[in-house]
Amino acid sequence: MIEELARINFIDFGSPLHSAIVAPYILHYGTEDQKCRWLPKLATGELVGAIAMTEPDAGSDLQGIRTSARRHGDFYSLNGQKVFITNGQLANLIIVVAKTDPAAGGRGISLICVETDEVVGFRRGRNLEKIGLKAQDTSELFFDDVRVPATNLIGTEINRGFLQLKEQLPQ
């Protein structure tokens, strides 16, 4: 899809991010249930994907992020802020990079999916101005005690997020 859109010089929503970055995290690390639940909807466009890594005070230094995810029984509570998020205004499935063990530095990071249509406490901030690619929104996102099911942790092991990011981001 990305190659065909490029051939006609179609500048759309962040479909390269949606298809070539978000979906592979689910494909490579997701549980079978996560793959069955999210990948078909990403393929049809029913879900628009984003990945929320960068933060106002940490930038792209993932070890310096402050967004936290604390486990409470069968759910996680997410708190924090993200910035410069492609598809942030449109996305309804966001992979959030969060600290699940703040004392462990980079080894205490996990990836947790937030289905924005189904949660309370999630807010979209400004659609940030930029020079080009106007159709691809770049946004601020806010998570205020957002409760997501524990089954939304990408994969089955907590604190694997930094390794997952290191393996997939080079592409």
Please explain how this structure is put together:
With 171 residues, this protein is of the alpha+beta class. The chain has a single domain (2-168), classed as Butyryl-CoA Dehydrogenase, subunit A, domain 2 (Beta Barrel). Helices cover 25% and strands 31% of the residues. It is built from 4 helices and 7 strands, in the order H-H-H-E-E-E-E-E-E-E-H. The strands form 2 sheets. Strands 2-3-7-6 form a 4-stranded antiparallel β-sheet, with no helix packed on it. It has a 3-stranded mixed β-sheet with strand order 1-4-5, covered by helices on one side. A hairpin with a 2-residue loop joins strand 2 (68-72) and strand 3. The longest helix is centred in the N-terminal third of the chain and has 15 residues, at 15-29. The radius of gyration is 15 Å and the shape is globular.
Can you describe this structure in just a few lines?
This protein is α+β, with helices and mostly antiparallel strands and 171 residues long.
Set out the fold topology.
Layout: H1 2-7, H2 15-29, H3 32-44, E1 49-52, E2 68-72, E3 75-86, E4 93-99, E5 109-115, E6 122-127, E7 138-149, H4 161-168
Parallel strand pairs: 1-4
Antiparallel strand pairs: 2-3, 3-7, 4-5, 6-7
